[in-house]
Amino acid sequence: MIFDKTFCPGSKSFREPMPEDYTCQQCGYEVEIWTHELRGTCPKCGASVFKERTPSCIDWCQHAKECVGEETFDRLMEGKE
User: Fold this and answer.
1) How does pLDDT run across 11-50, given as a tens digit for each residue?
2) Which of 7, 14, 44, 56 could form a disulfide with 29 if both were Cys (CB 3.0 to 4.6 A apart)?
3) Contacts of 46 (CB under 8 A, 6+ apart)
């Protein structure tokens, strides 16, 4: 596998987001949340559905803001709190 030298492989989920399914805690409906997002809204009941934030390269890499982009970096770091 060849990697683009301008980006690390750890940031792929932020640069090339994919959908993931999470279960709404209010009604049990499956909610799609993209890998670069921290929450989604249940289309059935309107509840906010949050995914668990796990540590990633943006937490320790000195080049993270440049790698994933300032807007994405700032949004993900807000969710850290």
Assistant:
1) 777 778 889 999 999 999 999 999 888 889 999 999 999 9
2) 44
3) none
Cα gap 46→69, rounded to integer Å: 30
The answer to whether the CB of 53 falls within 8 A of the CB of 38 is yes
DSSP symbols for the chain: ----TTS-GGGHHHHS--EEEEE-TTT--EEEEETT-SEEE-TTT--EEEPPP---GGGT-TTHHHHH-HHHHHHHHHTT-
pTM here is: 0.63
Residues in the chain: 81
